[in-house]
Specification:
The complex is a heterodimer of chains A (about 300) and B (about 350). Chain A has about 300 residues and is an alpha/beta fold. In chain A, about 35% of the residues lie in helices and about 10% in strands. Chain A folds into 2 domains: about 1-150, no CATH class; about 165-285, no CATH class.
Chain lengths: ~300, ~350
């Protein structure tokens, strides 16, 4: 990690000193040895705070939607491969100019689940990392201005653990049973909307749940309101969600939101051959029109 | 009332809790749910998970439900019918509306118990909130003292302690043949004397036989935190520190003392209800005026508000802090913002200014 941190710090220092960026957003040590947190650096002398390890769970691209952060103009962002796809999507959706961002891509060897790390887990292996790490195709980010290579070995995958296994289980269920499953999960929702806030792609300045003339989504925490909120959010993210898993990590009541998001991503790929956040020049799947679309109504 | 002290064996505490369930009380305890612990209804003592430090959420929802119906209405022709919750238990069968069932929290921690009377002050300051009061009156709290707080806990700094009985009706401490019990209120005594069988499970002991509290020392002085907040509303600290805040509001939703709510009308022209939902000062929309102006425009402004409310304004009004030091906001924060670290940091900054 030492070599990685050196390169990270040197890159950040250079960018700040040459005034190529006004702000670096990266990771630094957190409230305990197995937690990391974001750090915002404007002074080249502060770059020694930057570091990276398997506990860098946060998707720092989430800060790109914050007005306070946007004010800095040109920003250097430290991102893992999964999170970098959020940057791509923001560029695709005209939320971010490629000229305003310097991507400091870090090669990631998997992130340890935070709930396990909080219980003392420090090793990177298939049983301790997030499901997204088991299916990760972007250990090296797809797009970057600078790459910080990892000096850690890749963890072994032997197929013992099936990522997102519950999706197939749910697919095999009857509609009623599947509905029951989700009803039970959504029952837990306390409507804190942390899933939305933690999402790098939920950038609407006024979320649909905050609109009340007319009110589209019930705000109560009863069955209808909860299902409406969680399903609408899933729809708004389909074809866009890049699978960083921040919604699920943030959820204080442990709703398995990634099952919905991953399922939608699979469906979008199956039906439209589209993967989100892969190509900044691609048209977003629901922002484009194709005369060969398999649906009749659209023609 | 004068406090009373008892000893009770592990077997008998199990019997006591099961008796309370059998007497048709709603008994709530920390309970495992898919690998995490939450306060939930138990039907047997064995359902309770008493080995963990703290459930993920507090039991605030039993005083201030996540959604609470204030009244319901129906309109037909020129007839408007209002369903008053005074006569109606509310749509969700008791948790909402002014009527409340008798509810016993078993195995809460002193921090969570302390939140009850802290919230009560707000709900009775000028307007007497009958919805809250009815539930508070019917809530019985049996807490278990902590032995080992973790690194996010700061109840001692927040002027409670891991063994504080503030807000509890009965405080249990592990020891002897099971537990020692301190009964603080009439409500606590009522539970013990609810049946002669229950009363027989407890053996009264003299005050001296009840284990004394450890000498818990505060790591920093919260009054200095308040001192800093008093004088530094415009400090750049807030704007810089909370750049990392994503405004998710988890700190407020998991907080035992945060009590802000939002009133909404839901329904159709013919039928509907007025409800109140949990709300959070961490949301941008919380202070957004209809004019479009927002007095708390940055997340720094919003987190400062949370600090000011907890450690300055509430204290000026009620001579108590609006924080029990449970540390949930820090443990649950997805961006690792640590309130213990912040309050401690501010108290040191105050030191540096005054020196």
């Amino acid at each position: 990690m030492e070599k990685m941190n050196d390169k990270l710090q040197n890159t950040a220092k250079e960018l700040l000193e040459n005034k190529e960026v006004n702000l670096i957003i990266g990771f630094t040590k957190g409230s305990n040895p197995l937690r990391m947190r974001s750090v915002f650096i404007t002074d080249p002398n502060d770059v020694s705070k930057l570091s990276f390890n398997a506990h860098c769970v946060q998707d720092l691209a989430v800060f790109l939607k914050k007005p306070e952060v946007k004010k800095f103009g040109k920003i250097g962002l430290v991102v893992k491969g999964c999170d970098e796809k959020a940057v791509n999507t923001l560029i695709q959706e005209y939320q971010l100019s490629r000229d305003n961002i310097k991507i400091i891509g870090v090669e990631c060897r998997g992130a340890v689940k935070q709930n396990l790390a909080d219980k003392g887990e420090d090793s990177v292996k298939q049983s301790t990392v997030y499901d997204k790490c088991l299916v990760c195709e972007v250990h090296t980010p797809l797009l970057y201005d600078y790459l910080v290579e990892s000096d850690e070995p890749a963890f072994e995958i032997n197929g013992d653990i099936k990522p997102y296994a519950k999706i197939e289980e749910l697919d095999a269920m009857s509609v009623e049973d599947r509905n029951m499953f989700w009803q039970k999960e959504f029952e837990k929702c306390i409507k804190c909307y942390a899933c939305r806030q933690a999402c790098p792609l939920c950038y609407c300045t006024r979320c649909i749940v905050e609109k009340n003339t007319p009110q589209w989504i019930e705000t109560n925490i009863e069955e209808t309101g909860n299902a409406q909120w969680n399903m609408i959010r899933a729809y708004h993210l389909s074809g866009r969600c890049i699978g960083c898993g921040e919604c699920e990590r943030a959820c204080p009541v442990n709703i398995p939101l990634m099952l919905v998001n991953e399922k939608m991503a699979r469906d979008v790929f199956e039906k439209f051959g589209y993967k989100s956040g892969v190509d900044i020049n691609a048209k977003p799947v629901f922002g484009t029109f194709d005369a060969n679309d398999f649906n009749e109504f659209i023609k | 009332m004068e406090e009373k002290y008892y000893e009770i064996s592990s077997d008998n505490i199990e019997k006591f809790v099961n008796n309370l369930v059998a007497q048709n009380n709603e008994v709530i305890a920390p309970k495992d749910k898919d690998g995490d612990t939450f306060y939930d209804k138990i039907t047997d003592f064995k359902d309770a998970d008493l080995n963990i430090l703290l459930p993920k959420l507090s039991f605030k929802e039993y005083l201030l439900p996540k959604t609470e119906t204030l009244f319901e209405y129906s309109i037909s022709g020129s007839n408007i019918n209002i369903l008053d919750p005074l006569e109606n238990a509310g749509a969700d069968g008791g948790n909402s509306g002014k009527k409340s069932v008798k509810r016993i929290i078993f195995g809460s921690r002193p921090c969570d118990a302390g939140a009850g009377p802290i919230m009560e002050k707000v709900f009775n300051w000028d307007y007497k909130d009958e919805f809250f009061n009815e539930k508070f009156k019917n809530l019985y709290i049996i807490s278990i003292a902590c032995v080992q707080p973790d690194n996010y806990c700061f109840c001692t700094e927040a002027q409670l302690s891991p063994e504080s009985s503030y807000g509890s009706d009965i405080l249990l401490k592990k020891g002897g043949s099971g537990y020692y019990a301190k009964v603080i209120t009439e409500k606590g005594l009522e539970l013990i004397n609810s049946t002669s069988e229950n009363a027989g499970l407890f053996k009264e002991i003299p005050k001296e036989a009840f284990p004394a509290d450890k000498d818990w020392k505060a790591a920093f002085d919260i009054k200095k935190t308040q001192g800093f907040l008093d004088k530094n509303f415009t400090s750049s600290y807030f704007q810089e520190k909370f750049l990392s805040c994503i405004g998710c509001g988890i700190c407020t939703y998991t907080c035992p003392t945060c009590h802000c709510f939002d009133i909404q009308d839901e329904g159709t022209n013919e039928k509907g209800k007025r409800i109140r939902n949990w709300d959070s000062c961490q949301f941008g929309i919380f202070t957004l005026h209809t004019s479009g102006h927002n007095p708390r425009v940055t997340q720094g402004d919003r987190y400062r508000q949370r600090l000011m409310h907890k450690f300055k304004v509430y204290n000026e009004k009620f001579n108590k802090y609006l924080c029990v030091g449970c540390g949930r906001c820090s443990r649950n924060c997805p961006e690792d913002i640590d309130l213990r670290e912040i309050t401690s940091e501010l108290s040191l900054m105050e030191d540096n200014i005054t020196q």
